[in-house]
DNA sequence: TCAAAAGTGTTTGGTTTACACCCATGA
DNA sequence: TCATGGGTGTAAACCAAACACTTTTGA
């Protein structure tokens, strides 16, 4: 244990990291926020480490604040990735070698156990910002995502799976859509996440039956066709539905 | 960093622990496996640490093997508990002070981030076995559980909540019931977990419609009334239902 | 003025709920 | 033999899928 202290070791807990799958919705597509690593140009999920006085949730919020400028984001732990070999061959290490920062190399060579979070954010409000290891931070449509760094593809896949499952028993859309939105927009969101088309009229009936929407007087103009009504989420009921679920079940 | 090496530091990853909420079903009651701490007589969840070559899942299996004798247990991560203050005042420390084992005290004084697992096991096959810090390991009915050590009450509550949610979209019962069981027994299990009564006939129809049960020729005799049929789980369909869910949803 | 999008029903068929009835068993 | 639990069936209520018609809009 004769390694010299370094900034990571001093600031963060050993062994632990977190990775965020940040979903946004734009242009009728579900998109993910990705970082491009400086040297290898690999794409990776935004991630970070945990300070001694933080919970994982707080650490994830901090990371997302840095990457998107947004606070108060919908965030959910979905799985821990603890394969002992998962963080081998971290390309960040080679970045650091160029900078002769041996102390940090030790840090990045250790085994990391990573907590996966997924986040839902309003695409239009986020301002993607790269971190120290990356030269680019941008949105990618899901079908444009190639192989990611380390096990990040696996993390992304699992997040998407969880999101689809969640759709079956929890409301979704707040934090993914602007404050006011139309029913067709909400439907498009569902269709995009599920990857299939839904019946317009049945969708609307079902959605309204949940009681989580407020119908507004306004309509959205400017489209080439009949102007649709605007809706907003009824936050009280929305929160309740998040906890209790949409179906009674048993 | 001048502390002397100790067996924990050598064997396990720093900062990290896991806690298991082990559910069993007996006597029409849902029970949890608890340990009684040697000195303070506090009750606690079975837990443990992670070796450098283990995933969390493997570590949790190892712990459960030690506490119950059972392998191949249904195990599920449900949440990470990472409050910086959660592991303060660990009573284990005072046990160790009595044994003058200063090296280990350092270990237990560190901040722990714990991964919560819940497990479903066949009550009749488990052999509760205390660990080094406890003098007793036994099943407690849920309503007999008093305050637990540290934040373990909170962990237990969250596990139960997750279990109830799971009931709404996943099959349950395999690993909680013996290989062969009757429909009333299965129903009792559901009623116990949900904390409410269900209609006998509707329950049966619904259960059968899932296609995860095989009806056997045998009947269970010895009861004071009409002998009910025995069933077993259709493992293929059961596993599929675990992944896909019981309801189509959207 | 017209194609496309959006609002608003209705019909139909399956599923769930709430029951009733009969049968088997050991006390 | 009888109280109790268990197997099986059915009418009514409910809900969801499929589909039709009208209205509005900018090009």
Notes on the protein architecture:
2 copies of one chain form a homodimer. Chain A folds into 2 domains: 7-166, Nucleoside Triphosphate Pyrophosphohydrolase; 181-244, Winged helix-like DNA-binding domain superfamily/Winged helix DNA-binding domain (Arc Repressor Mutant, subunit A), CATH 1.10.10.10. Helix content of chain A is 32%, strand content 27%. Chain A contains 8 helices and 11 strands. The first copy, chain A, has helices spanning 7-11, 56-68, 91-98, 102-109, 152-166, 183-194, 200-209, 235-244, and strands spanning 16-26, 29-37, 43-44, 47-48, 74-81, 113-120, 134-141, 173-177, 181-182, 213-219, 229-233. In chain A, α3 runs antiparallel to α4 (102-109). The longest helix of chain A is centred in the middle third of the chain and has 15 residues, at 152-166. Chain A starts with 6 loop residues before the first helix and ends in a 6-residue tail after the last helix. The model of chain A has no long low-confidence stretch (mean pLDDT 88). Chain A binds chain B through residues 1, 13-16, 50, 52-57, 77, 79-80, 82-84, 111, 113, 115, 165, 167-169, 190, 194, 198, 245, 247, 249-250, and chain B through 1, 13-16, 50, 52-57, 77, 79-80, 82-84, 111, 113, 115, 165, 167-169, 190, 194, 198, 245, 247, 249-250. The structure holds a DNA duplex (27 and 27 nucleotides).
